[in-house]
Amino acid sequence: MEAMSIDEIKTQFSDVLKIVKKGKRVGVLYGRGKKPVAMIIPFAEEEDNMSSYEIGKNYFGKNGSGNGSLSQNYKKILKRKLNK
Question: Is the pLDDT of residue 69 over 70?
């Protein structure tokens, strides 16, 4: 995985997208200490056929409920947002 500061990402954004299109991840470093704060990841086409719970579980991992007990409203909201 490559990591870049926000300034580098802003000035080389098209290069960042080329890296991500190849299936690699790019870490985002922030501040004077260049601490990792985010990650730019490739879009996964297989998500088109996944339920909102499955997508959420993949992205939120241990922070998800883990047992499919998310409220019905939350599932609907998440599914609507992901289908835009």
Answer: no
